[in-house]
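Recall from the previous lesson that a structure prediction takes nothing but the amino acid sequence as input. Here we apply that procedure to SRPBCC domain-containing protein from Pseudonocardia alaniniphila. The sequence below is the only information supplied.
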Amino acid sequence: MPVTDVKHDLDSRTLTITAEFDAPVERVWQIYADPRQLEKVWGPPTYPATFVDHDLTPGGRVTYFMTSPEGEKFAGYWKVTAVDEPRSFSFEDGFADLEFNPNPDLPVASNVYTFTEHDGRTRATYAGTYATAEDLQKVLEMGVIEGASGAINQIDEFLAS
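The prediction returns the following tokens.
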């Protein structure tokens, strides 16, 4: 299993997931840089993702939706704030309606994804910070740890295929 650690801290409003992949940093980066590859691993296994827009550059926007087993669609967006290819990227991650307008009633995370070489493998750190402890608590109750861990745990199998 790629996920090696999950920590959340309501006081600092953070959720951090650490994972290790049996691939070089550049290969893991390619998954996030290519929307067709990202579709294979973004979201829980039973909620496949479709990326509509994918501009992984500072100021860029990424939009996607996940489809439930019953066919219901759930949309999200990223507002990319920084990119240091292939080491890291930062973005605001929010929920949206099906036309990709941000949903102001749901939390937004400020995320930093970092990829570093570690013993010939890639260590990935997925860190999210929320505006309030209540926002973090809300996504925890929505199952963010299970959903994100399930998504991340698909990456090794995808890399091997």
